[in-house]
């Protein structure tokens, strides 16, 4: 049996893995709290600084107190940001995916002809394409 297997038993490996993932979870929670804290507009810079100092000097207690005190509000703010982003994407998709009629295409081609971007032959080709297709 290799020497390394007897020096570091399986339960020690499991405990080390558990502790490692616990720290990863705590750091993730801390980043989530800080992200929510810095996105907030309803508290002053001094309030944000107080929360930061609290979470630095008493990290576990500070994060858990913030989550308990602001958990529902964090959820509401996140939902609001997601809804705003969703509505912006929907508005963009609607703006670029609106079906154009042949009249709109002819008007756009006429504007291009008037500005000199296309020649009269190209205007005629675009007009024929809009009327046929």
Describe this protein's structure:
It is a single chain. This protein has 133 residues and is mainly α. The chain is built from 6 helices and no strands. It has helices at residues 3-7, 10-39, 45-57, 59-96, 102-115, 120-132. Helix 3 packs across helix 4 (59-96). The longest helix has 38 residues, at 59-96.
Q: Any low-confidence stretches, pLDDT <50, length ≥5?
A: none
Secondary-structure-derived class: mainly alpha
| Number of helices, counting only DSSP H or I runs of 4 residues or more | 6
Helix content: over 70%
Q: Span between N and C termini?
A: 78 Å
**Spatial shape:** elongated
In angstroms, what is the radius of gyration? Answer: 30 Å
Mean pLDDT: 90
Oligomer: single chain
Count of discrete domains = 2
Strand content: under 5%
Largest sheet: none
Order of helices and strands: HHHHHH
> Can you count the beta strands?
0
